[in-house]
Design brief:
The protein is 24% helix and 34% strand. β3 and β4 form a beta hairpin. The chain is built from 3 helices and 8 strands; from the N terminus they run βαβαββαββββ. The protein has a 4-stranded antiparallel sheet, covered by helices on one side. Strands 5-4-3-6 form a 4-stranded antiparallel sheet. α2 packs across α3 (116-131). It has helices spanning 26-42, 70-82, 116-131; strands at 16-22, 57-65, 88-97, 105-110, 146-151, 158-167, 169-176, 181-189. It is α+β, with helices and mostly antiparallel strands. It has a single domain, classed as Cyclic phosphodiesterase (Cyclic Phosphodiesterase, Chain: A, Alpha-Beta Complex).
């Protein structure tokens, strides 16, 4: 039986998301999970919390695709290869909801200061993406944050116990959309060399 082609104007549903990220170390992950648990109880939230292994600070979203596309993947990996940058210190000390036009709101950690090194690194990675022909994927507007969970209830931003770690690597992640599963497709060291 021949393969059925999609109807004109109906694209296949995306299954794979590619993005660059920084991930917390084990100690920071444990602290973040504890903060999330405290917020969950204090605000009567019901959304599913992210697994410790999926916690990350997004840097650049390469795209959502039906399957894993070879060309953007190769170009993203090439951008990772050419970037040279030292370790990046991340410090988040506030938690609250991001407002967006969806039924569920992301509850996120953010920093009230000292985010300039993180923004500078994100910008440099964007330049590397541009040099590999992925300029359109390089986000020029960036608010450093880490999503903890999604919930219909809005949580006003407030101070939390600061979480700080030094990222010594950045990664290219394949997220299987709707399956809460991340796979690292590329990993690059952040060192002074």
């Amino acid at each position: 039986m021949p393969q059925q082609l999609p109807l004109p104007g109906l694209a296949a549903r995306p299954t794979d998301r590619l993005f660059f990220a920084l991930r917390p170390d084990q100690a920071a992950s444990a602290q973040i999970i504890a903060i999330t648990d405290g917020l969950y109880v204090a605000h009567g939230l019901s959304g599913r919390r992210l697994k410790a292994g999926n916690l990350h600070v997004s840097l650049h979203h390469i795209g959502d695709f039906a399957g894993l596309p070879n060309e953007p993947l190769l170009r993203a990996r090439a951008a990772g290869e050419i970037l040279r940058h030292g370790p990046v210190t991340i410090r988040f000390d506030r938690a609250g909801s991001f407002v967006r036009q969806h039924r569920t709101l992301p509850l996120v950690l953010r920093g009230s200061g000292q985010v300039i090194p993180l923004i500078a690194f994100q910008h440099e990675l964007g330049q590397a993406l541009g040099r590999q022909g992925l300029r359109a994927m390089a986000s020029t507007s960036y608010t450093p944050h880490m999503t903890l969970l999604y919930d219909p209830r809005y949580v006003e931003a407030k101070a939390v116990t600061p979480v700080e770690w030094t990222a010594t690597e950045f990664v290219l992640i394949r997220s299987l959309i709707g399956k809460s599963r991340h796979e690292v497709l590329g990993r690059w060291s952040l060192d002074a060399d």
